[in-house]
Amino acid sequence: MNIHNLKIEGKKIRREIIEQTDGAVILAFDGTKVILINQNHFPQGKLLEIPGGKIEKNETPRKAASREFEEETGYKVKSMKHLVTIYPNVGYSTLTIHCFVSTKVEKINRTKSKDDDEFIEVVKINFEKLLQLIKNGKILDGKTIAAALMYESKFWEKHKKYVTRKTVI
How far is 4 from 91, CA to CA, in rounded Å? Predict the structure, then answer.
C-alpha cells in the first residue's frame, strides 16, 4: 500500500492506494453456452466467474486473457475482441481489468492451471441462464457481471440469431 498526499480541487488530501497488477478476462462462448469457472476465492468462497488472471510483465492484456483462459479451461481462443475495461476498486486500488469476448473457441486438453493454489472446475451454461443468475443476485463477481451485461446490451440478440440460424441450417 502506498500513501499519497496530494491536492484535489485546492484541498490537501491523503489517500492510501493498493498497488495491484492489472488483469484480463474472457467471456467465451461455445455456441450459446458460456465457458465459466467455479473457483474458491478466499475470503468470499466459491464463485462462478469468467476465466482470467493477472497480466504478466511484458505481456499484453489480450495475450494474458488468452493464456489464462487456456490454462484454466483447456480451451483455446481462436479469435477475440475487446469488450470493456473496468476499474473494479475505484478510489483505493490501481487495478484495471480488461474484458474480452470470444465466440470462437476449441477444446484442446484438460485444464492445466500452473498455480498450486487454484482449484478450478469448468462449467458451461446457457448465456441466458448466466444473465438470470446475475439478475437474481446469484453471481456476485464484478468482472463477470460487467462483461456479461455489456455483451448482452451490445451483441446478444445478433449472436443468438446467428447461432440459431446456423443450428437450423
Answer: 12
State how far the Cα of 145 lies from the Cα of 62, in Å rounded to an integer: 20
DSSP letters for the chain: -EEEEEEETTEEEEEEEB----EEEEEEEETTEEEEEEEEETTTEEEEE--EEEPPTT--HHHHHHHHHHHHHSEEEEEEEEEEEE-TTTTTB---EEEEEEEEEEE-SS-----TT--EEEEEEEHHHHHHHHHTT----HHHHHHHHHHHHHTHHHHHHHHHHHHH-
Cell (9 digits) for 42? 478466499
Reported pTM: 0.85
Number of C-beta neighbours around residue 166 at 10 A: 9
Per residue in 28-84, pLDDT (tens digit) is: 999 889 999 999 888 888 899 999 999 999 999 999 999 999 999 999 999 999 999
Q: Cα Rg for the chain, rounded, in angstroms?
A: 18
- Span 141-165, mean pLDDT? 82
Determine the Cα–Cα distance for residues 144 and 163; give it in Å rounded to an integer: 22
